[in-house]
Design a protein that fits this description.
By secondary structure, this protein is an alpha+beta fold. It has two domains: 9-150, Methane Monooxygenase Hydroxylase, Chain G, domain 1 (Up-down Bundle); 257-390, no CATH class. The protein has ten helices and 13 strands. The strands form three sheets. Strands 7, 8, 9, 10, 11, 12 and 13 form a seven-stranded antiparallel beta sheet that branches. Helix 5 crosses helix 7 (178-254). It is rod-shaped. The protein starts with 8 loop residues before the first helix and ends with a helix.
Amino acid sequence: MTEACTPQDDEASFHTLCRHKEAAVCSDLLHAVARPLMSNLLRDITNDKFHQVKTTSKLLTRAESTVGTELVALVMRRLCFRLVTPVVGPTHASDLTPATSSSPAPAPDGTWVFGTPDMSMDERKAAAVKAEQWLSEMEDSLLALSKAIHRPVIIAGGGSLATVNTADDDDIVSGKPSSTRRREDEQNASNDNSEAFLALGEKRRMQQQVERREAAERLHARQLADAREKAAADARELAEATALQQGISEDKQAVAHLEAVARSTLHNTGRLRNASFEAKHFQLRAMRHGRAFACTSCPPDAVEAHWHVINGSLLYAYCVHLSSDASKVLHLGYEHAYQYNTIPGTEHFGRTVWMTTKHIDETTGQIALLQHHTKAVDRCVYCNEEFRLLFL
């Protein structure tokens, strides 16, 4: 029978042609042309449709425009395809004559046919397997060549990565198996650069550790500073509250003996008589450490009286400033009205609502201020006591 595949020296010819081309271009040729053909053959060797490729097909014309007809023809012959062309003359156009291997380029209307007519199916399978082995070796060879040409190395003393060309023409046509050449390239790269890579990696690792430690220390210092600041603020608030409470207690004790006089003065004041009769939670204090109702007209030795009047779910809060001996009313404070909401389904149900704020002019007796509110509150604006305790 006639051998469909070309001799082994075609492999050297393939490398020789690839010497003057980019490895990526040759690899694309194998990937775009050879790999689809062999995949179809190995999948269904009995299908005659996969045994023929026209030279005018888009698959081959695109490849020839990129790498040339000579390299495409070499690859096709190495894959056990033979070129047949129609006989020119009076003979029927279906008569095909094999083309000689010396033909550098296929005829425009030729056909690449897999194997020879006298090959059995087993021989065709063996030829396809052999062609597949060659194709795999060439793919691995071009891949190793591409990696070797752009091998990353470390410039001595620079501490940075660079890319240099490390392959020459002898490597392209060395004829070594691709797996062996790839292992040699990887071993050489490892031997040359392992210590430098390890040193660089260790340096980077130490630098990252230092950065992480410094960041953690800054975060811890900031957290400590925030905690100290918050503790100092809480301590100041506690001290101020304690001092204020202590001052209020001292103010109350300073005028405790004037409570009866103050009640009598309120009972005898027309605008306050009705409100003072049902007074609850009555408080009397000097204004040495502040005052519940802020004013600027009263002297420092004035006395402040505060009480509540409760009528069902309503609570009224009063504040009055008296003279130092509690015998005279200096002026009235604001009257605040609160109501406990007992209507289910309404807004602020189960809470105390601040309803109105009223102020009566001392000289005319007319209402000088009247404001309406719908705000839920928990404490009295004057004594800061909780309503849940006041209503009890």
